Amino acid sequence: MSFAETFKALSDPARREILLMLRGGKMSAGEIGSHFDMTGATVSYHLSVLKKADLVYETKQKNFVFYELNTSVFEEIMLWFAQFKGENGDENK
Amino acid sequence: MSFAETFKALSDPARREILLMLRGGKMSAGEIGSHFDMTGATVSYHLSVLKKADLVYETKQKNFVFYELNTSVFEEIMLWFAQFKGENGDENK
DNA sequence: AATCTATTTAGAAAATTTTCTAAATATCTT
DNA sequence: AAGATATTTAGAAAATTTTCTAAATAGATT
Q1: What is the pLDDT of residues B22-59, one digit of tens each?
Q2: CB-contacts to strand D (7 A)
Q3: Among the CATH numbers 2.40.160.20, 1.10.10.10, 3.30.479.20, 3.30.70.100, which is that of B3-85?
Q4: Pairing with B38, which of B4, B13, B32, B91 sits 20 to 30 Å away (CA)?
């Protein structure tokens, strides 16, 4: 996992919205797309970005592709942020 | 604070690097700039993005501008991520 | 007040990202 | 196997972001 990819993925509002939607469980690409005012191709692009960032993974069933949150990466991001908690510099004495 | 702005700000590697540098305490714009292979104007642009996202704040002293982490916003970001912890949908029964 | 140092602003160029349309792929149904 | 449904890929256009150079601002020093 690269933080560069992860943060880039999180920087787009549609992609963050997709992640929030997926909290409820798996959704197919089409189901996800129907919540947005963009073409299926564009949604597919966003899903591919989330997938490359390991924020979601996909499973195929029939002619559907289901997307699901990959919660383990969220843990790693939390660790990145934890770097900023406590032990502040010298408090600028 | 808007998450859109915050995540956009975090999506650039130079800006994340600046945040990491600031963990040690306040630094002037020039001091920050000297760690990068880019013009002062470009560094100034990145600092302005971080500032608009409330990730840092500035204080002026003489003809220097010092930048400092605004840790409170990090807490808010952690809250955003907390949305993804536990209480997963229906686990797709 | 002239000059120097530190930083920002303006405007343009370069790079990247987002979006679309059209075509391709893959699986299902008849 | 032909047609229907779901999704992705390719390639181009549109939008946004990043970067630079040059000029502007602001405070400090001579």
Answers
A1: 999 999 999 999 999 999 999 999 999 999 999 999 99
A2: A 28-31, 33, 40-41, 43-45, 47-48, 58, 63-65; B 8, 11-12, 14, 37-39, 41-42, 45-46, 49, 60, 62-63
A3: 1.10.10.10
A4: B4
